[in-house]
Amino acid sequence: MQAIRFGIDLAKNVFQVHGVDASGQVMVRRQLRRAQVVKFFAAQPPALIGMEACGSAHHWGRTLRALGHEVKLMPPAYVKPYVPRNKNDVRDAQGCCEAVSRPEMRFVPIKTVEQQWARALHRARNLMVRQRTQLANAIRGLLYEMGQTSAQGAAGLEALLQRIEASDEAIPAALLTCLTPLARQWRALDVEIGQLDKQIVNGVKQDQAAMRLTKIPSVGPVIAQAAIAAIGDGRQFTSGRDFAAWLGLTRKSHDTGGKHKLTGHISRAGDRDLRRLLILGASSWLRQVKAKPDRGSPWIRGLLARRPVKVAVVAQAAKTARIIWAMLTSGQEYREQEHRAPVAA
């Protein structure tokens, strides 16, 4: 008999494979070197293959799917209950093989090369933005120790950079020797981030779905492309709330004894980078609503009136996530009149 279901424990060089037949009898239990994986599965009849959604999983999912197999990726946390104790590679592969057969298992859609490229673009940008912020804080801190301060924001930092580049006499010469390379690195990172931003904007202009998402208040090109790169068309979620819960923008629930209880804090599960972008976008949008209340819907104005601003920001981010899911799955345009209050005559 041939194995009809496989579980693979992925690694850099050594892969553990576990295969069973229709009756659950173990047919394959072996290690494969990286170069042997494609050759081995090319010789197998079409089968169901389960793997954890970890590093290189999407690459191997596309590769094995091209060989005619049905490949399903699973969150590692959902596979863990099927792994016997005394964890090792053999039992990890066995757990994947068992978990992929369960009807209640949740699966991770295999990302395309374009989706992975877009996510890599955003991760590189996030890294450089963090480095740029660290440099700015270091420059401000070193100057503050010498009694040199400036205004908050980009304008204040620009003033400090110009003073450093001009070798301001008020700054000790010994301090300039360490501030000058920091300022130079900040300038270089700022240029690189600007180039990545242009690349993101150009990519959004060529994507109709991303262009539709930019019509949503608080959603710009960065959020639009990041959302599509993360979930594609969004059909792996059954509702907008499921998408918001996957992002960690909903409260945790605790049910026991027939009693339903929601905690006060959001779960913060799922895609951390996309959640952060949605919250930043919501924060920017609510600043505009507070300046011009007629721009916001009655719902958000009422929320701002009775709850703290940070709570309203998270609530707006969760609502934006639901709108993004609805637009991606339905293909419809954003209907502004349904989300904003009419301007008084």
Automatic annotation (TrEMBL):
- Which InterPro entries does this entry report, sorted A to Z? Transp_IS110-like_N (IPR002525), Transpos_IS110 (IPR047650), Transposase_20 (IPR003346)
What sequence ranges are listed for the domain Transposase IS110-like N-terminal?
A: 7-145
Q: Where is the Transposase IS116/IS110/IS902 C-terminal domain?
A: 212-288
Q: Please name the NCBIfam families in this protein's record.
A: transpos_IS110
Spell out the protein name for this chain: IS110 family transposase
Biological source species:
Mesorhizobium dulcispinae
